[in-house]
């Protein structure tokens, strides 16, 4: 058994269904390298009419795993970060993260960026847990429900498109979201040219 092979997880999804999806979504938000999209796409292709249910399971358990990742970072991460990077760098990243934490978490949840790095970093930097939960639900939900909607409306025939194009679409959308946020912040401060 190759736990890092996506085909193993596709078979796992078909065998264990929503329970396997919940398990993968939870552990991926903490440490596991296989994204829940692999299982979500497999289950949605197998049963498109249940796609929104699978998206809800993925969103919920990914967010719950993110909370655990947060507490791992919160309880032991800052001393390690200071040891490896120095207090000045950690404080600089903390100020940056604090200023943009909502956008950072939303973008991490929505794009193919490794979500777990941001959940643990949120804990290391003592970010707002309530913001982590809220923007994880929004970001993860947007991503997973968008995938589910494609399967619900187009069926398993959309599988190839989703597997080969969705990460690029989410990345471009994430970049546009960041640009829109920066323009909004500057307009609010009155610093637009």
TrEMBL record:
Q: Which UniProt keywords apply?
A: Membrane, Transmembrane, Transmembrane helix
Q: Which GO terms describe its cellular component?
A: plasma membrane
Keyword Cytoplasm: yes or no? no
Q: Which residues form a coiled coil?
A: none
Q: Does the keyword Nucleus apply?
A: no
Please give the superkingdom of this protein's source: Bacteria
> Domain named VTT: which ranges?
34-152
Give the stretches traversing the membrane: 12-32, 52-73, 132-154, 166-184
A Pfam family recorded for this sequence: VTT_dom
Question: What is the name attached to this protein's record?
Answer: Membrane protein YqaA, SNARE-associated domain
Species of origin reads: Desulfurobacterium atlanticum
